[in-house]
Amino acid sequence: MPTVLIVEDNLALADAVAEVLRSIGYCTLIAHDGEAALSEVERSMPEVVIDLELPAIDGLEVARRLRDVYGKRIRLIANTAWSDDADTHTKTADAGFDDVLIKPTSIYQILKAMQHGGGQPAL
């Protein structure tokens, strides 16, 4: 199974998602801010599930930087509490995300997005 980087500033949420993914066989990594996420991707080349509201460098900027360096070699999934509207989908698509999940999300939605692009695809 692939390695998944959960980028989430809510420590309890990041730990919970990572633990569930580990329990079904994924190797998981956690970053709590954009800077740490960029460093971790450089080391491990994981699939990435990114919260958009991060301290310092937000998730949109993290996605743009990852796309600039790695192109489509990394699957990027936005996991956000932003509203499920056209503006959210446009912003995430423009930043390079493959899928958008609107919180609250279930582990099944995350798995589907990772495996088959089961979130809301970029516009």
3D structure, described in words:
- This protein has helices at residues 11-23, 34-44, 59-70, 86-95, 107-116, and strands at 3-7, 27-31, 47-51, 76-80, 99-102, 120-121.
- The chain is an alpha/beta fold and 123 residues long.
- It has one domain: Rossmann fold (3-Layer(aba) Sandwich).
- The chain has a 6-stranded mixed beta sheet with strand order 2-1-3-4-5-6, sandwiched between helices.
- Helix 1 links the parallel strand 1 (3-7) and strand 2 (27-31).
- It is globular and about 35 Å long.
- The mean pLDDT is 90.
CATH architecture assignment name? 3-Layer(aba) Sandwich
User: How many separate helices?
Assistant: 5
Strand order of the main beta sheet, please?
2-1-3-4-5-6
What CATH first level would be assigned? Alpha Beta
Arithmetic mean of pLDDT:
90
- Strand fraction equals 15-25%
Number of domains: 1
Radius of gyration: 13 Å
- The backbone outline, from C-alpha atoms, is globular
> Which regions have little confidence, pLDDT < 50, spanning 5+ residues?
none
Helix % is 40-55%
Classify the fold: give the CATH topology: Rossmann fold
Along the chain, the helix and strand elements come as EHEHEHEHEHE
N-to-C terminal Cα separation, in Å? 28 Å
CATH superfamily: Response regulator
In total, the number of strands is: 6
Structural class, please? alpha/beta
